[in-house]
Amino acid sequence: MIWVKVGYLGPRGTFSEEASLRYFAGKDVEWKMYPSIVDVLDAVQEQEIDCGVVPIENSIEGSVNTTMDGLAQDPDLFIEAELVLPIEQNLLVNEGTVLSDIKEIWSHPQALAQCRNFIRSLGVRVKTWDSTATAALELAECKRQDIGAIGNAWAAKNFGLHILQSNLQDMSENHTRFVVVRRGETALSRADKSMLLITLNEERAGALVHVLNIFAALELNLTRIESRPTRKKLGTYQFFIDVEAGVQEEDLQKAVSIIGTFGHQVRVLGSYMKDKKI
Ligand SMILES: O=C(O)C(=O)C[C@]1(C(=O)O)C=C[C@@H](O)C=C1
Predict the structure, then answer these.
(1) pLDDT tens-place string over residues 4-47
(2) pTM score, two decimals?
(3) Is the CB of 97 under 6 A from ligand 1?
(4) Is the CB–ligand 1 distance for residue 134 below 6 Å?
C-alpha cells in the first residue's frame, strides 16, 4: 500500500532527490519527478502529489526565489517540515577530459552560483539547466570533451561520468535547507519553528521595526528575515520571517494577532520541527 505520493525536482540524481530520500527513508512512498520547482509546487496545489520537497535556502547563495515566490503566491501551500542537507559540488566530465579542455560549465543556477570562484578561475562560459542532474545527464549523452557539469557524486556514478574535482563550492561548509510542502494546514502539535509572510499595510518610518518589536516583546527569537518584492510596485516588499516557535504556542498566536490588529497582513507559511543537524 502506498503511504504517500512525494514529488521533487528531477531527473534522478538531483540534490532534491537526495533530500527527499533522506527525509522519507523507511516510508512507503510513490515518487514523482518534475522538470522544475514550480511544477513541484503546482503538483502539490493540484493534489497530484501529497507533498513536494523543494530547496528554499543555501548557505552560500541565499534564498531560492522560485520557492519563496511560489509559496507566497499560493495561499493553499503549507510547510510541514524542513531538512538541511550538506551539499558537495563536483566537476563531472566525460572520460578523458582534462581541466584545460573545458570551455563551458553546465549546471543549475544555484549550483553555478555556489561555485562562482572556481568558474571564474577557469575563465569559461556557463550554461544553465533546470537541475544539476539534467546538466550531468545531457553531458553524458552528448559525450562532449569540452564541457564540465557541476553536480553530485551520485550523478557521476550513475551517468558514467568522472569526477575531476570535488568540493568546488566557494566555502567548504555548504548546506541547503529544503522544505516539505503540503496543501492545507498540517501543523504538528509539537512544532518549534514557523515561517511567516508579513506584508506591511503602509510605508512609513519604523513600520518594520514596530513589527519586529512585537516579537522581541514576546521573547520570540527570529532566525531569518528575507524580503521579496510584492511584484505590484517597485520598492514594495513582503517579509519572510522564521521564528523559533510553533503556531500552537500562545506567544506566537499573540504576535500574529497583534500584527494583524495594526492592519498588516500575516500568513503562517508553515510550522514544523527545526532540523537540528547544523
Ligand atoms: O539541481 C539540483 O540538483 C537541485 O536539487 C536544485 C538545487 C537548488 O535549487 O538549490 C538544490 C540544492 C543545491 O543547492 C543546488 C541545486
Answers:
(1) 999 999 999 999 999 999 999 999 999 999 999 999 999 999 99
(2) 0.95
(3) no
(4) no
Q: With the CA atoms of 186, 192, 193 and 198 taken in that order, what torsion angle do they form, in degrees rounded to the nearest 10?
A: 80
* 64 within ligand 1 shell (Cβ under 6 A): yes
Cα(185) to ligand 1 centroid in Å equals 26
CATH superfamily membership of 193-272? ACT domain (3.30.70.260)
Q: Which three cell numbers stand for residue 257?
A: 494577532
Task: Give the residue-averaged pLDDT of 84-92.
Answer: 97
| Topology at the third CATH level for domain 4-86+174-183 | D-Maltodextrin-Binding Protein; domain 2 (3.40.190)
Which CATH number describes the domain made up of 90-165? 3.40.190.10
Atom of ligand 1 nearest to the CA of 152: 3
Q: Is the CB of 131 under 6 A from ligand 1?
A: yes
Q: Which atom of ligand 1 is nearest to the CA of 61?
A: 14
Task: Determine whether the shortest distance from the Cβ of 132 to ligand 1 is under 6 A.
Answer: yes
